[in-house]
Design goal:
Largest sheet: 6 strands, parallel
Distance between the termini: 20 Å
Order of helices and strands: EHEEHEHEHEHEHEHEHEHEHEHHH
CATH topology of the largest domain: Rossmann fold
CATH superfamily of the largest domain: Glycogen Phosphorylase B
Number of domains: 2
Shape: globular
Radius of gyration: 21 Å
Length: about 350
């Protein structure tokens, strides 16, 4: 059986979670020899699996009737705080995403909230719940990576480093991250991420003005290549994941796999997504207080490490791969039964 995986992020600026999920997906499928993989324009397959929702998704999927799968990374709420004037675009976004979902015979919902969004749009598709695959082994902290990461960022060995990861947009909570940095001058803060969509980013002028006047204990790396991220995570002591809307985010699980406490924003999505407890803050003041506690109390920090260690067990890559391969085999068999080889 051959699986054709398609993602337009391969031809775009790559500083976004969808591209990371696509890369992780392809690497996971290639980790064993039970199926063949073709990517984008490399050829054709028996089953089609798309990650994005542009022209390539519709074009490449034309020859795969009854064999199309789409992983839903983006729902209508994803544009809130991401695109300028998003309320104006929302009716079109809702209509368009309904077409995207309905084009596939099966949509993979990466979280319960995504499953709900697909149903609310009335898309004509089967829904299967499978989280984003994450190769946690890739993110394991090493002394060498920590040294290289701190050298890359210009950090001293004895500095307590608080990390934020995401695009520089309002939805990701970067402005709140700057507020926390201003309240804790004795720590160093690093925001890793840029603007892959450039001017089509909500609040770009406002956030740029904030960055220009940001306190001296915070730095912004801009967009980084994916292979540098293990170094960035290893350089940090704590991650604050301040985002206001997510589906199945990769960054906090990558940080947890790198062996650090992760403080999430307290939002509804995570309550249904995660099987285990996680550190959370509902307000900027709570982020500030939790960060101070993690800096100064070794017991609280140690407990935070244990929370991260348990959290990543939900994203066992082998179990996720089994679910994906089983789904591919089912669709391929259904089509074979519909169109026997002798016809």
């Amino acid at each position: 059986m051959k699986v054709h995986v398609v993602s337009e992020t391969q031809y775009m600026v790559k500083g976004n979670g969808v591209h990371t999920a696509f890369i992780d997906h392809v690497e996971l499928l290639k980790s064993k020899n039970d199926i063949e993989i073709v990517v984008n324009n490399e050829g054709t397959g028996d089953v089609f699996h798309g990650h994005t929702y542009g022209p390539l998704y519709f074009l490449k999927g034309l020859g795969y009737k009854n064999r199309r799968i789409h992983t839903v990374h983006v729902i209508p709420d994803s544009i809130k705080g991401s695109l300028p004037f998003w309320p104006v675009f929302m009716p079109f976004v809702r209509w368009y995403l309904k077409q995207v979902y309905s084009y596939a015979e099966v949509c993979i919902a990466i979280s319960p909230m995504v499953e709900t969004a697909i149903k609310e749009l009335g898309a004509k598709t089967e829904i299967v719940r499978i989280p984003n695959p994450i190769n946690t082994d890739k993110w394991i902290r090493t002394a060498e990576n920590r040294k290289k990461g701190r050298e890359l960022l210009g950090l001293n060995d004895d500095e307590f480093v608080v990390l934020g990861v995401g695009q520089l947009q309002a939805r990701k909570g970067v402005e709140d991250f700057m507020d926390v940095a201003a309240a804790i001058p004795q720590a160093r803060f690093v925001w890793a991420g840029g603007r892959p969509f450039k001017a089509m980013t909500e609040g770009i002028s406002r956030i740029d003005a904030r960055i220009e006047t940001a306190p001296g204990n915070i730095q912004f790396t801009g967009m980084l290549e994916l292979d540098l991220m293990p170094l960035i995570y290893a350089a940090a002591d704590v991650m604050l994941f301040t985002s206001y809307q997510e589906n199945c985010p990769l960054a906090p699980i990558e940080a947890a796999a790198c062996g650090m406490p992760v403080v999430f924003r307290d939002i509804e999505e995570y309550k249904s997504l995660y099987d285990y407890t996680y550190l959370k803050a509902a307000t900027t003041n709570e982020f500030i207080e939790m960060t101070k506690q993690l800096m100064t109390d070794k017991t609280i920090y140690s407990n935070g490490l244990q929370v991260s260690k348990q959290l990543i067990t939900q994203f066992d890559k082998d179990k996720i791969r089994e679910k994906l391969v089983s789904l591919y085999a089912r669709l391929n068999e259904q089509v074979s039964n519909l169109y026997p080889s002798w016809m």
